[in-house]
Amino acid sequence: MNIVVAIKHIPSIADDVPVKGNNVDFDSVDFVLNEWDEHSIEQAVLIKEAVGGTVTVIGVDLIGELDNALHLALAKGADKVVKITADDPAADSHMQAKWLSEAIKGMGANMVFAGVQASNDLDGQIGPMIAAYLDMPYIGGVSSVEANSDSATVNKEFAGGAGAKYSVSMPFVAGVQAAPKPPRYAPVSKVRQMAQSATVEKVAPSGDASSGLTFKKMAPPVVTGHAEMIEGSSKEVAAKIVELLKSKGLA
Amino acid sequence: MSNDILVITEHMDGKFSDVSFELVGKAKELAKALGGQAAAVVVGGGVDANVFASDSTIQVDDAALSQFNPEAYAKVVEALVKEKSPKVVMFGWTVTGMDIAAWLSARLGVPCAAYAKDVRVEGGGIVVSCQAYGGKLTAEVAPEGETAIVACLAGSFPAEAGQGATAAEKIASPVDLSGLKMKFIEMVKPAGGDVDITAQTKLVSVGRGIGGKENIELAEELAAKLGAVVSASRPVVDAGWLPRTRQVGKSGLKVKPKLYLMLGISGAPEHLEGMKGAELIIAINTDKKAPIFNVAHYGATADLFEVAEAMLELL
Ligand SMILES: Cc1cc2nc3c(=O)[nH]c(=O)nc-3n(C[C@H](O)[C@H](O)[C@H](O)COP(=O)(O)OP(=O)(O)OC[C@H]3O[C@@H](n4cnc5c(N)ncnc54)[C@H](O)[C@@H]3O)c2cc1C
Ligand SMILES: Nc1ncnc2c1ncn2[C@@H]1O[C@H](COP(=O)(O)O)[C@@H](O)[C@H]1O
Predict the structure, then answer these.
(1) Closest residue to A215, CB basis, from B141, B284, B287
(2) Which pLDDT value is given to residue A20?
(3) pTM for this structure?
(4) Domains of chain A by start residue, with CATH
């Protein structure tokens, strides 16, 4: 089984997201691995453990710092890592999807996994676009994949814990929402070892596409309301909340 | 090319989701401003499609479309968009709309603005406001070209404006649906046996800030004191700290309790979709810029553990 997993480095949203001009100020944010990519790596490695095969992890290196994420992927069980050397944090999703699909084309993938979404950009998902460019079917919101010989049984989530099972013939692209198990932890020592011994294959970006969207503005949301903030120490906050709940007959 | 708007509706178990009505309502407003028509598209036969306030409704009836099938639905929508070349194609940015909107964008080489919260007409074209960075930023984008795809978050527009009784025109599939690579096998129903969080009047909801499975107990204790039940954001469930039945949000359950006390939840758009209708929302978060504070009624920039412990002493 040949599985390709696309991973993405994104600006961390744990802190402020600074804006410069009409886009994020990419120089002053930390980049982290998109959380759904941890799940798609896990899903790929689980399949490899079940039926054998190769897991190749690929990403567009937007800021020249993707190696860390790739080493992490190796420590979690990936066999091969590839980076597309773009060095353009503002490349739009269509462009990136095009580069990725050109690079994935020759890999003989039975399955391509992408995270169901990344929490940064807005013009959609790279997974479905890779599927469109590679002329493969796409299924998103995926919470488990079991590989058979030339097809897979895929569980897609709907809302409220409901879902549906599909049989999908290979090759296809899946947007992973969650692996059947929480993503495994890779010890720092193992990541370091990978950083010293592993080779990251480099591919130049090839192909061209555009999102066709003009950014007019990027700014913090216009806030229509704001919570009434309860000030004070944690004890005071607790007391005020309890008082509030009592006054409303909720405690 | 036309000035029409095509709304791709969605339904399950014979019922349309609210977002379909929300989109139709908005499409009517946009079509009026653009001088076009708003058409609703219903893919699949097993639902009464005469329920929209659209100018027209098309229902594509084919046995291969009786259950949601991302591949089949995508092909049908692609064929309709090619045939009608509308100005705007509207999807819900939902677990089904997400499968198709961006795919169609790449297939047709037309722009797609996802995560949309608002759409307005400006200078004969549209401008879309989209949420980005987990709700911390808003981007305004203008699509180029003759057709644009807009995928809107559920709950962005009022549903009433889209409700009506336009008679649907039934058509056969515009594309050959034999030889699909994707086959629907069966529905998987949610696991039963747990409490129903949608039926609770009070919820204590925990997010990733709760830090680990061992801390769920604290939330359980607090909930017990308040006569509440513990619910959660998605990462808590994905980590296996609570069962799926407790998840609130886009891919979880929609709740509308009298009290929604949030401990360590940032307020991502996908979470808000499930709880913003709660009567009293109180959020405890250490990040004073957490987007949840734009939605909650009361908030405190504080450590959830300290506040929860202190509340336990007082209750
Ligand atoms: C298709 C799709 C569907 C989704 N469906 C859902 C869904 O149904 N429900 C859902 O919830 N999410 C859903 N998500 C995920 C969603 O995008 C967010 O990732 C998620 O809601 C974030 O959960 P969180 O707020 O608990 O975690 P985070 O965003 O990581 O926030 C944790 C918060 O805890 C705070 N914190 C940390 N420590 C403390 C402390 N000691 N005291 C107080 N505060 C603290 C932090 O400041 C932070 O704000 C979905 C995503 C996708 C792509
Ligand atoms: N630059 C990138 N390199 C590799 N994969 C990517 C890249 N951008 C997005 N992806 C994949 O597409 C998924 C969805 O991202 P997005 O379309 O940006 O919301 C991610 O989880 C990745 O799997």
Answers:
(1) B141
(2) 85
(3) 0.93
(4) 2-203 (3.40.50.620)
